[in-house]
Amino acid sequence: MEDEEDVSADPYLPYDGGGDTIPLQTIPKRGSNYVMSNGGGVASSTTHLLDFLEEPIPGVGTYDDFHTIDWVREKCKDRERHRKINSKKKESSWEFSKSVYDAWSGWLVVTLTGLASGALAGLIDIAADWLNDLKEGVCLSAMWFNHEQCCWTSNETTFAERDKCPQWKSWAELILGQAEGPGSYIMNYFMYIYWALSFAFLAVLLVKVFAPYACGSGIPEIKTILSGFIIRGYLGKWTLLIKTITLVLAVASGLSLGKEGPLVHVACCCGNIFSYLFPKYSKNEAKKREVLSAASAAGVSVAFGAPIGGVLFSLEEVSYYFPLKTLWRSFFAALVAAFVLRSINPFGNSRLVLFYVEYHTPWYLFELLPFILLGVFGGLWGAFFIRANIAWCRRRKSTRFGKYPVLEVILVTAITAVVAFPNPYTRQNTSMLIKELFTDCGPLESSQLCQYRSQMNGSKAFNETPNRPAAPGVYAAMWQLCLALIFKVVITIFTFGLKVPSGLFIPSMAIGAIAGRIVGIAMEQLAYYHHDWFIFKEWCEVGADCITPGLYAMVGAAACLGGVTRMTVSLVVIVFELTGGLEYIVPLMAAVMTSKWVGDAFGRAGIYESHIRLNGYPFLDAKEEFTHTTLAREVMRPRRSDPPLAVLTQDDLSVEELQAVISETSYNGFPVIVSKESQRLVGFALRRDITIAIENARRKQEGIVLASRVYFTQHAPTLPADSPRPLKLRSILDMSPFTVTDHTPMEIVVDIFRKLGLRQCLVTHNGILLGIITKKNILEHLEELEQRAELPSDDVMPPPVATSS
User: Fold this and answer.
1) What's the rounded Cα separation, in Å, for the pair 70 and 77?
2) How many Cα atoms occupy the beta-carbon half-sphere of 138 within 13 Å?
3) Of 293, 303, 285, nearest to 332 (Cα)?
4) CA distances (Å), 478 to each of 54, 108, 449, 593, in order?
5) H/E/C letters for each residue in 70-117?
6) ∠ CA 26-30-32 to the nearest 5 degrees?
7) pTM of the model
8) pLDDT for residue 54 is more than 60
9) Which residues does 179 contact at the CB level (< 8 Å), separation at least 6?
10) In sequence order, what are the residues at sequence separation of 6 or more whose Cβ sits closer than 8 angstroms to the Cβ of residue 201?
11) What is the pLDDT of residue 722?
């Protein structure tokens, strides 16, 4: 009896070896809330997509906006193209030259991308520095010089006041004629706010009017695009132009943002534009993504002056498909971009980066404890920032405040400028702040952080002994840094996500560098006053070179950036390339790894994955593990409450009936079955391909009318003599769509989707079509499981089982 009850309870068993048919309908009614993903699987070498075409139909195999590409089909198309080129190259010298051009086109496109990325990065760096100094004054001898360049040629500059020269005039000197006093301070304050608001307003206006896609960091969208999603215009020429201009304006406005993340977007725009010059990449979306992976490496290379770090960033953080040849081309693109940037020399220091540092003391074993504590701080900051920023962005989307992006940018800029000006550490450019925090104190440094007392006479001077008691200037700087830390933590939450280009790398590094420098100075003074403690006794004798506060700033910067992005290997390489601190890899590794562990304890998703999820992009993260025990039949559509699955029969539909299916549904693809009686799977046809094929047939073939029979078989069915000409659509039919059985574990299904880049997978039972699983269904299922895991056990409802009846 138990066996009989089990058999009757399983809705799929009656279909074993025949039995009752599954009630699939051919023309479903509108109203299902499920939308089938734009599908299409692999075509085998014997039944390739183009094998049955007498003449290829223009437009077949292309994709609509906001759809996912079919990786497997694109790779098949590329292999077929490669076979044709190889088979013809011995026919003539022209065909041979075409094959050579095709083989070298990959290297040509990444070379052009690297050249353009390096040139644009140099232009952005120079323009941003000039506009940033424009908020404080102007160079009378040469308007195009920034503050530092203006004083280079001056003979009246003293060593103590090297940043002051007659050629550079503050706005108070120009307008009021006085350099000191309350009136001068207020005028400089007013002009600082005026220029900040002007730059921010112009930036948000250009973005809103000309290129809405130019806002934000761009990395979440690039990750989604590299996973196979189509976003038309996101990497276009208008987006590139406006992003380049507005990035300069946004950085110069003084907002708590950086240009490093958006530079990845700029480089990917260059890669996308240049890929259209080469048919190998312009006509194949999967191949184009190989160029974009190399472009993202070039973007990080010029953003940080870190070519190796850029390649690792592309591999670890953004790329979805990264074959070995893409690794080589990414390396080459990063090399070319770095070479161009070094040739431009935007910082005037003959180096690729602004904050190159050299430390003269090693690190000691006891310092691992504060380094790990900085890692804990970075992980906590990252978890807090992600939750707070996502909550604010979600509120922006759901309230009226999000409808006024210009007002929001103006408001945040005004608050930032008003609060930032009184504090010298928030007033200056964030990159300059990081440089000052990273720099070790020496005789040539005039920073307030380096005002130590001499042991000889108590004056603020430098002597040979590295350990010195801090003067009041250092303590004042510590208070200012604490206030700057609080301000940066709060304002960055509201800045990231504004409708202007905004990167997160530099603000996160600044927060970590401030915290690290504070900890470093505290450790330094502790070692000076308590050098007889057991932890300091061996290394920190009186006069011994012991603690380097700048090193703590560098470790803190890496820890905070790691806490926000959850990067590990690429981040460590970027930071040591950025600073030249090769000797300090172990402290960096310890802090970054601790930061990741602490951050993961509060949630495994980094800031970019969180924004992808917030925006609803169809991105399956390969880093996440699927640990649940659900089956394919629990996730597939249709479910019990859904209308039956829309299908096409292989040889008894008319053109009119086929167009009715397309017009009455919003699905992007349809399974093709033998007949309503058999219901065995034949293949899969895309909505876009069907529409294009019908339009093409009506335009080029006579006799195709609404009553014409449509058939997907190799040979036309037998028709009456007076029947109109039939329409053969076998050429657009995918004869080998991916299928799984209804009892396949979802763990395997998710793995297939991730590793093969599928858009949809058909579910069968003994060859009979039961339903379909799309990428969207899997994302919804993962979200549902995550929400169910957060509920108390009493509130958990059993999952609905999908069925076709």
Assistant:
1) 11
2) 12
3) 293
4) 77, 51, 8, 28
5) CHHHHHHHHHHHHHHHHHHCCCCHHHHHHHHHHHHHHHHHHHHHHHHH
6) 95
7) 0.85
8) no
9) 170, 172, 173
10) 406, 409, 410, 413
11) 77
Residues recorded for the chain: 805
In whole angstroms, what is the distance from residue 202 CA to residue 208 CA? 10
Structure tokens at 456: 């000889």
Tell me what the pLDDT averaged over the chain comes to: 83
3-class DSSP assignment, residue 574? helix
Sheet strand arrangement including 727-728: 653-654, 709-711, 727-728
630: tokens are 């659900």
Residues 109 and 115: their CA atoms lie apart, in Å, by 10
Query: Quick one: pLDDT band at residue 678, thresholds 50, 70, 90?
Result: confident
Q: How far apart are alpha carbons 415 and 401 in whole angstroms?
A: 17
467-to-517, 538, 564 alpha-carbon distances in Å: 16, 15, 34
CA-closest candidate to residue 336, choices 301, 366, 368: 301
> Residues 113, 269: contact at Cβ < 8 Å?
no
> How far is the C-alpha of 756 from the C-alpha of 79, rounded, in Å?
16
Tell me which residue of 483, 498, 28 sits closest to 255, measured CA to CA.
Answer: 498
Residue 718: what are its φ and ψ, rounded to 5°?
A: -70, 125
Report the DSSP beta bridge partners of residue 763. Answer: 740, 771
CA separation, residue 558 to residues 258, 444, 584, 595, 667 (Å): 15, 26, 12, 9, 46
- State CA 26 to chain mean position distance: 41
Angle, alpha carbons 409-240-496 (nearest 5°)? 30
Q: Which two tokens stand for residue 693?
A: 């094929």
Q: Average the pLDDT over each of 215-224, 256-265, 358-367 and give the range with the smallest value.
A: 358-367
* Cα atoms in the Cβ-side hemisphere of radius 13 Å centred on 535: 15
Which residues, at least 6 apart from 433, have a Cβ–Cβ distance to it below 8 Å? Answer: 425, 426, 484, 510, 513, 514
How far is 142 from 135, CA to CA, in rounded Å? 16
C-beta of residue 402 within 8 angstroms of C-beta of residue 228: no
